[in-house]
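tool_call: predict_structure(chain=1)
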Amino acid sequence: MSLSIASPARARSSAALVLAGVLWGTGGLAGSLLGQLAGLNPLAVAAYRLLVGGATASAYVALTGGLRGLPRTPEVLRRLLAVGGLFALFQTSYFAAVSLSSVSTATMTTIGAAPVVLTVVSAVRNRRAPRLWTLVSVGGAVAGLVLLRWSPEVATSPARLAGGLGFALLAAAGFAVLTLVTAKPVDGLEPLATTAFGCLAGGLLLTPAAMWFGMGLPARVDVLLLAVYFGAVPTAVAYAAYFRGLGGAHPVLGALSALLEPLTATVLSVVFLHERLSAFAWGGAVLLLAALAVGYWRPEPR
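tool_result:
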């Protein structure tokens, strides 16, 4: 009987994590287009992502009466400030890695390192080695990501490349800590409220630096609609789904689900931007999907 009760809950958690990863993948294309159409620095794009996402989710929480049931406790305040700070750290470190190395290197290092960090941390905290299937899933997913996103022609100095890798690892650590923090729920604090006020806090922290580079948005319908989509769907909805899924899944599986982001972004680039993938990239995509399937089929217990 316990299995019949646990399986639907696990399926709902897995579905929420998959939804988050796929929606994050659409955010890559949306953020890139927003930066091009509005002439924005990547840090300004990240600030708009968090601010618009937080405002959208906050409006929904307010309209649905969620504010009335939101506890005003120190624990809730600490959680929201922690999520906002980690959002800001993750975004800032990631775009610093991009500026010092490349989009491919930063994405591959950040997203690939997060499940590895969480696997090691979980093993140390639980004083138990990860299951064999977990190691197979993490190893296969990272290898698939490398094949999918590897771009050897990085025109930068060794010092800048080392700095880029350092910031990418810092971003991965920030995402890993965010996953660990939000995996433990706070009484009365729903995932959407966590997303709403966490994004707002993170966006406000990024705004001073983003304003230095310029945050002016052209008063054009296409730009404004794209900014709203970027904040609402791959940010507000995606992170709310991610935090919801973490409630019934191991943090390692949550971090593995984030690898759906580069996979989805690659598929969208092939379909809409007519990019061509090498045989190694296609092999990486297949390996990544297979490794994720193993992770969902034989997940690490919470």
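agent: The radius of gyration is 19 Å. Proceeding to next step.
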